[in-house]
């Protein structure tokens, strides 16, 4: 019988890494912990009511941008969203989920930021080199189709339990759209605009910053939106390795078969999702 | 002609450009005289430019014309090396641009040579003024200087008032003005224009052509202009190069191209043109016609000359070869009957005179009420030649002169 022990080889490699690259992983652990904790600290710093107002104002500014903040259209777009933020967050507060909600915000924002910071530059490089693109493409496919639970195993081995393995697994899972859409956006910039810009003596860097990135921005931001949504979809899964927040509550609800807890926390995730989705989409649109 | 005293600005030497992977092989086959199609068949390579050799002079509008796919754009892009030639040299002010490294190449694109594109290639996320200032921005000029120059150039192309609009909000014609302004703003010496007006509707296009000519009088750039429209080429070009399958088949003034098309390909282009606005008196005139010298030749000599040459009208010159007018056979015969010694009394003096550069279209109206030939004279009124009625008609309807004469004579017999 043929017996391919691919899984074992992967396991051995991971074991080897977790022992020999321990310093490296410790560094990452400290870094990610720092980011998540400080985000959480900032979000928890103001009184919840003040925080609701702050988020509502941010929502109003982003949604109403480009329409005139005090015009009817601006008021309609921004005002509706601001109202939703206040009511949604107030209900969550009332149900006693304020801390979890802020933790979830912190986790999602930290993971999305990391995914974007890694993904966009990789996307830029991929857009400039066909060979790099052809190497990256299958890797991204792999990352996206592998069931996200699988990432939890090495994440635990490298980073033990808590927020960090959750964030790492989330970053891995939500990274692909940042790379893909940045690549796509830059490659999609009209050839004649690029050629014209070159004909005026642009350096590659000037071309990138003055022409390609600005013109690819709507696509890149669509990628950012997708990253955020994917990161959010990981919060429950990440809680299996000890990440906190609303995901944790849902997970507890599952373990205890507690319908009320599960529903309330699940509703919280929906509210957070709507807020993040609308705001990140609007940020992309108002750029044009 | 007058080329000797003009400064060569761009010199193209043995320029070849082949697309594809087996370039060397393709190049060799081309050298052996194989056609573009054959080379493509054999090697899978496209010979876009095939052994081009010519010079472009300072301050001239040099038009490159040819059918789609003949290699015009590709050749133009060699000048600023947006595409690198496979072999050959291009000298700008006697400097070989093929040897430039990245940095010097950028310097050249920034300072010497800019380009206007068929599809404009403007930055849609920026305003008109910021697009026009783009070249200077790339050079790192400070913002005030940039904007000042941009506003000035925008005014030059007639777009004042639109400076702070986004380019996407402008019509095609206006966008191309922005493209032109962007190219002019860095004060380049050479302007490359790739079908710059082809995307515009005919009315705006004509207008832009005129404005370009008007502007060119002021700025005196060396312009390489690509088009596949002969009318445009004739209107703009000081000289025209015609390209076919990557080969330059003819270079000459608009006049040369029209009068002596080098081959059927050029002829095919030329046939659809309103020639009368381009063809001049100089090119359809009959040179050094037999004439009567008023001091020496009397009615007897004149009648004899008329018989010999088969003409019933002859021009009359004074002793300094200045054109005086015409004599007609009947009048001369009258004078002979009256035993006059000179034809002076019968010279028809009130006749139109034109320069050799006058377009045929401008001569035509004379024939409405005038049946004599039209005299072509130089600045000192010396006779250079005669333009006959039938020559002009032949020019207008594109038939050979003899045919027209036949038609006319056939008509009178009826
Ligand atoms: N990037 C390329 N790769 C391969 N072949 C090309 C490339 N660009 C142009 N060609 C070929 O080179 C030849 C010349 O093309 P070019 O674009 O210079 O023609 P053109 O005279 O400008 O035509 P048009 O009037 O349509 O603009 C064509 O046969 C074209 O198919
Ligand atoms: Mg072209």
Short descriptors:
heterodimer; A: 288 residues; mainly alpha; MetI-like fold; flat; B: 414 residues; alpha/beta; Rossmann fold; CBS-domain; 6-stranded mixed beta sheet; 18 helices; 17 strands; 39% helix; 22% strand; binds adenosine-5'-triphosphate; binds magnesium ion
Written overview of the protein:
The complex is a heterodimer of chains A (288) and B (414). In chain A, 84% of the residues lie in helices and 0% in strands. Chain A has 288 residues and is mostly helical. Chain A has a single domain (6-45, 95-287), classed as MetI-like fold (Orthogonal Bundle), CATH 1.10.3720. The model of chain A has no long low-confidence stretch (mean pLDDT 89). Chain B is of the alpha/beta class and 414 residues long. Chain B has two domains: 1-112 and 189-197 and 220-273, Rossmann fold; 281-409, CBS-domain. Chain B is 39% helix and 22% strand. Chain B is built from 18 helices and 17 strands. Chain B has helices at 23-31, 36-43, 72-79, 102-111, 128-132, 134-139, 143-156, 172-184, 202-219, 230-236, 254-259, 264-270, 281-284, 299-309, 329-337, 360-363, 389-397, 401-413, and strands at 8-19, 46-57, 61-66, 87-92, 95-96, 113-116, 190-194, 222-227, 239-244, 247-252, 286-287, 292-293, 313-317, 323-328, 353-354, 374-377, 383-387. In chain B, helix 1 (23-31) runs antiparallel to helix 2 and helix 17 packs across helix 18. At the A-B interface, helix 9 and helix 10 of A face helix 4 and helix 6 of B.
